[in-house]
């Protein structure tokens, strides 16, 4: 593992923070290119992404606090440790929830598009494939950081991770971060197909929610009890949220596809 990629003078550049930044830039680049030929200007895309990043990071931290309130009540030192939460070495990305971050980013996009009179769902459709790219690249940062790993495994590609950035290592374990990266890039590929064949506004983003929820639900089984705690009925918090989001996404897709099919008759 390489939690610190390199030094810029006295400043250590950590793997997770760097890959998070790289993922955001790659996702933004793809989204700006996709905006060509649409009614949405590139400047608006940049604004939405930047506001979404800021809102997403804050809401990701707030969601983590709410989901882990008993822990924070016992030790409140992490409540304001947002910077450490993003750039903590070795021990993982503390205090961030992807679902909370996504909700924050979507909320920021809604406010911005309402003010600028841009179609909200069209903006979400435009951003969804770029989001998949950003997530996949960021998970490489998790791998290098040595966080979010899975349960012990006897597979040829199992990896030993340093525990909390120290010298002690885990047993050979599932590199669930790499699985997440592969799944996210596969989701990106599927979204490009949906994008070309889009039947209603919002279909691309809703498809992303459904596909991400499926991946996350399955991937959590390989992390449960190691880097993801059981919350209820043998499921982790992320699995419970993923099931809710998946059900809602599939319902939206089913209703709208039936509506479109009915309009064509």
What does this protein structure show overall?
By secondary structure, the protein is mainly alpha-helical. The protein has one domain (4-264). 65% of the residues lie in helices and 5% in strands. The chain contains nine helices and four strands, in the order ββααααααααββα. It has a two-stranded antiparallel sheet. It has a two-stranded antiparallel sheet with strand order 3-4. Helix 7 (176-196) packs antiparallel against helix 8. It starts with a strand and ends with a helix.
Q: Quick recap of the structure?
A:
With 265 residues, the protein is mainly alpha-helical. Helix content is 65%, strand content 5%.
Sheet with most strands: 2 strands, antiparallel
Poorly predicted runs of 5 or more residues: 85-95
> How many strands appear in the DSSP assignment?
4
Elements, N to C (H/E): EEHHHHHHHHEEH
Mean pLDDT over the full residue set: 88
Strand content: 5-15%
Number of helices: 9
- Please give the alpha-carbon distance between the first and last residues: 57 Å
Oligomer: single chain
Q: From the alpha-carbon coordinates, what is the Rg to the nearest angstrom?
A: 19 Å
Describe the global form: globular
Share of helix among residues? 55-70%
> How is the largest sheet built, in terms of strand order?
1-2
Number of domains: 1
Quickly give the structural class. mainly alpha
């Amino acid at each position: 593992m390489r939690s610190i990629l390199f030094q810029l003078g006295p400043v250590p550049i950590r793997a997770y923070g760097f890959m998070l930044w790289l993922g955001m830039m790659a996702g933004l680049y793809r989204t700006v290119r996709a905006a060509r030929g649409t009614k949405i200007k590139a400047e608006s895309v940049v604004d939405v992404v930047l506001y979404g990043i800021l809102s997403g990071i804050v809401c990701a931290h707030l969601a983590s606090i709410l989901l882990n309130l008993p822990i924070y009540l016992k030790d409140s030192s992490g409540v304001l440790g947002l910077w450490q939460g993003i750039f903590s070495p070795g021990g993982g990305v503390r205090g961030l929830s992807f679902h909370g971050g996504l909700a924050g980013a979507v909320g920021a996009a809604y406010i911005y598009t309402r003010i600028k009179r841009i179609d909200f769902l069209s903006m979400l459709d435009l951003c969804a494939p770029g989001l998949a790219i950003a997530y996949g690249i960021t998970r490489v940062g998790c791998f290098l950081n040595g966080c979010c790993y899975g349960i012990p495994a006897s597979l040829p590609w199992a990896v030993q991770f340093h525990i909390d950035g120290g010298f002690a290592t885990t047993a050979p374990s599932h590199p669930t971060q790499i699985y997440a990266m592969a799944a996210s890039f596969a989701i990106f590929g599927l979204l490009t197909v949906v994008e070309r064949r889009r039947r209603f506004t919002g279909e691309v983003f809703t498809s992303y929610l459904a596909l991400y929820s499926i991946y996350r639900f399955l991937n959590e089984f390989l992390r449960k009890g190691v880097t993801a705690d059981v919350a209820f009925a043998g499921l982790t918090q992320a699995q419970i949220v993923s099931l809710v989001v998946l059900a809602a996404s599939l319902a939206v897709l089913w209703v709208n596809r039936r509506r479109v099919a009915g309009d064509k008759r």
